[in-house]
Amino acid sequence: MTGNISNKRKAYIFTMKALMFISVGITCALVLFLIGYVLIKGIPNISWELVSTKPSYLSGKIGILPDILNTLYIILATLLVVLPLGVGAAVYLTEYARNKKMVATIEYAAETLSGIPSIIYGLVGMLFFCQFLNMKTSLLAGAMTLVIMNLPTVMRTTQESLKTVPQSYREGAFGLGAGKWRVIHTVVLPECVDGVVTGCILSVGRILGESAALLFTAGFAHALNGIIEGLSSSGATLTVALYVYAKEQGEFEIAFAIAAILMIMTLLINLLADCVGVYFRRRKN
Amino acid sequence: MKNKVKTMELVVHGIFLILGLITVAAVLLISVYLIISGIPAIKEIGFFEFMFGKEWAPTVSESKFGILPFILTSVYGTAGAILLGTPIGFFTAVYLAKMASPRVKRIVSAAVSLLAGIPSVVYGLVGMLVLVPAIREFFDIPDGASLLAAIIVLSVMVLPSIIKVSLTALEAVPREYEEGSLALGATPVETYFRVSVPAAKSGIAAAIVLGVGRAIGEAMAVIMVSGNVANMPSLFESVRFLTTAVSSEMSYATAGSLHQQALFSIALVLFVFIMLINATLNFFLKRQKEE
User: Fold this and answer.
1) Which of A96, A228, B28, B70 has the most CB atoms around its CB within 10 Å?
2) Is B27 touching A (CB cutoff 8 A)?
3) What is the complex's ipTM, to 2 decimals?
């Protein structure tokens, strides 16, 4: 079949195929190089001492335990606030809203939010949460900033999963005499767990990687705190710590150790997201 | 009893309405804050002086607040990243959508998702220690931290957006179009590029616009590889972007000074760029839906 096409067409096909293979090759090589380089440079620098101590000026040793804890605190605080808000917004859009214009406005606002760069979130977070609401530079102010950033994500995943809840479930419950709120919290909400879980995982990934929005809202401190004290004081997350160690202090070994930890976490989160997706799809069928 | 239930339903409805409107409130909050804090400095410095001034020297006694270098650096940097990233992303997407076996597609898609998930500071770190020295040696210049380094890092960072959105658009092309082309004697590769790609052009355009948005908004990776000096943009010189101008000086600008207000104005300019990009993105996404 390929025997009777002109040389010009053959050349075109060959070029296009070559370009495709080269591009896929470059993409895959980039991913492999990034993972390999960061892990090889970083893993040898990860030690128990590094992850279990705080930085000490006396001994001149650097520990990243405070940064790890700060990251956990900020993830917890953000999820705790963003989940009810995002799920609530999604429920309103799919279950309550009747006005098409209103739905379009809310969805447009969510899209706009997901397009705004994190540095702008950082600035507005600083002005609004740190200064106007007087939270000072604190993990809590950082978490609130991240809540706004992650709101569209949680809202969208929940909304998508709410759309797959069969209308007959709702009608059945209404038919039995249940009120709207009762139908929502007994029939609809339990069916959208998959969307909420996916939203959670995506948000955790985004919070873990965020740095520009946290620089001016959560600050750079490396103090070892409990969660309550931690949230009300300034603290660096792992990404911010990486930036400070690499850019300001030239501590590249520490920076690579943190980068390797972040890379492993990213790998795990992506894996988890895939597994959760497969699990819920199976359960629904 | 019945009334009680009714009131409860109304209250719940009200709560959900408020939750639904939070996104709108957040957008308004961000816009209002940026406008209120960004306008004063522009007024004081003068719009043209601010936007087209070539010199940025906020801390000397005869301070100068011209942000043309930042604007041009952001525009050139983004354009460069898109020029480098788009062909790679585009051809990868076509391969994944049309030619790859399900297994290859699954693995490469996972790799692309991973690329999207890597924190920007990690890109910055690798760029700082691999790319910057490589550029210094290869082009024999005193410092490799330059616009070129930023362009290369950004082109990698926009790849996932371009690949994923183009892939979705290409997969949505109706099977009949391709079957028609194949039946007329076109080979599969010709069909992909002359039938499938034109049919998915709005989606691919949206993918590129999304990439533009990602590139122009990136701060941390860029600050680590671009050297951060307020020069007019040149490929081998240290440069400063709109985003990095804000992030590098915000921590030491005196609160309430013209310097800090000017930084808010820079953020406002960036925000206007982003809003224009969002509007373009929506235009293409809408057209794709209509097609």
Assistant:
1) B70
2) yes
3) 0.91
